[in-house]
Amino acid sequence: MKQLPFKQVDVFTSRPFYGNPVAVVIGAGELDSATMQRIAAWTNLSETTFLLPPTQPAASYKLRIFTPRQELPFAGHPTVGSAHAALESGFAKAANGKLKQECGAGVLDLTVEESRIYVRAPEPKVKPVDTPLFGKAQALRVDVGPIWVVVDMGEAQAVDELAPDMPAIEELSHELHATGVTVFGRTGSAAMPIHVRSFAPAHGVPEDPVCGSGNVSVGAFLRQTGLLKEFGPNYTARQGMQVGRDGRVQVRVSADAIQIGGEAVTCVDGKLRVD
Q: Within 10 Å of residue 101's Cβ, how many Cβ atoms?
């Protein structure tokens, strides 16, 4: 029976058990896709990743990302957490503070800045949608690999108090071929001006504790609608309080790129036994 290094990393926090966990299997080149999917269903986290040797000359490593139900081309918190695991384990080394991650969305640029890791997300594809679930609230469908229906709820209190209709969100997700729904609202705090929640019941994740791709999609929403001037090009979003977490996502938005970043901490460090 083969044993592979395994870490569970909390992302978008410096404190164990306060961020969004990702399971990372290191050196998983001999595993087939069915085995990876089975492991992801077993961990039952929003995402499980597998670090592999790169196949692209410029890449530092290759990453495959799975929800409990399917593979994703890109996801934010798994990217940050897996980069943390790759560096901590020695599977990859940063060159002048830079990493390049090969994944289903291509080769992505990562930057290591002191205790934070940032990733430049794939360029979003944005279009308007109607969401009768949220009344007259403005909504956009944002594709960054995962596809989020992003809804502006106005004030953070509306986000805090939202009691999501999971069957309806799942139905809407199937109808729009989306991963799920991400909502946001204004907190009134200069330090953390945006509160975010993300729901993906169609992927077996009723509420994602702290969602990187969801926050990329909010950044794309703000840029597309001209609302970015309310918050500036660099801001911090909070997420996860409703599920007992306290995540912080750093977001950088420019005309030609959206980056998200944050801290990460290893909570579990061991071996995974694989047939």
A: 25
pTM of the model: 0.95
The CATH H-level superfamily of 125-256 is Diaminopimelate Epimerase; Chain A, domain 1 (3.10.310.10)
Q: How far apart are CA 106 and CA 153, in angstroms?
A: 32
Return the structure tokens found at 4: 């592979």
Which pLDDT tens digit goes with each residue over 127-143? 999 888 888 899 999 99
Query: pLDDT tens-digit profile of 5-39?
Result: 999 999 999 999 999 999 999 999 999 999 999 99
Catalytic residue among 30, 47, 88, 123: 47
- For domain 2-120+262-274, the CATH class is alpha beta
- Is residue 171 among the annotated active site residues? no
